[in-house]
Amino acid sequence: MKPEQFSVAHCVRLSPVSAVLPETSSFLFHLLLLTELLVRSSSLPLRSSSHCGFFGSMIHQVESLMNLSRKIHQLRTEDLEHFEDAKFSLDSLPDLYHTAGHLKSLKVNESFTQMYGYTQSFKLHIDWLKVAKENVSLPFQTEEGASSHLLQLSNLIEKCFHPQNNEAVPSTAPNLPVVSNAFDALVYSVEISDRLKVFCVWSKRVLRHLFYISLCKTLIIRESHI
To answer: Which residue ranges traverse the bilayer (predicted)?
Structure first.
């Protein structure tokens, strides 16, 4: 007669101690292992998981901004040569600096605060450019779209992190010049377009980096197996 295979159900049903003892240590080992796995999975940073849902939306806004940044001045490459020698510029525009080493040293809190400040600053300049173009009878629909995406990006950052109002966030509007003709408006359009492209590249790299260091990839893989 073949002996019955041992199972957890037999532990509950069989009363003789001899029926339980042979597998008790193995059963307890697997139970402890399962408990440890559950504890570790539940101890993942909750704040990181809350960030993950926003990263995709932020990247979408940044990509939309990148597409619009190429259309702000609506000039062909050969036409841009006429604006290379322009002597005036907007010193109030964010001057972004980023290297591979800089990205590796990024911290979530500081990065979101910095990105929030840049977003607010670019929105101020885009809104100013929209009014300037309207006053000299130039198309301004692109600026309206860019302003909308900057506002949505700013709102996402606020919901995700609630950045504090510090030096990274402009407290007052910059002293922007008066635009009196279409040529000046186009010069400023070219400069804002170039800076906005740099901002979009920087933001996308930062968001992708924060995506990984916030354990979002781990969480997505784990949730896909549930």
So the answer is: none
Q: What residue segments make up the domains of the chain, in order of their start?
A: 8-43, 47-223
> What whole-number distance in Å separates Cα of residue 99 and Cα of residue 3?
68
d(CA 223, CA 51): 15
Q: Give the tens place of pLDDT for each residue, 16-70.
A: 444 444 455 555 555 455 444 433 433 333 344 556 778 889 999 999 999 999 8
Residue 199's H or E segment, with its range, is helix 182-213
- 30 vs 124: CA distance, rounded Å: 60
How many degrees, rounded to 5, is the angle at CA 14 between CA 10 and CA 33? 45
User: Which CA distances in Å does 17 have to 2, 6, 27, 97?
Assistant: 20, 14, 15, 71
Rounded alpha-carbon distances, angstroms, from residue 67 to 57, 63, 115, 152, 162: 16, 6, 19, 16, 27
Specify the CATH number of the domain 47-223: 1.20.1250.10
2 is written with which tokens? 């073949």
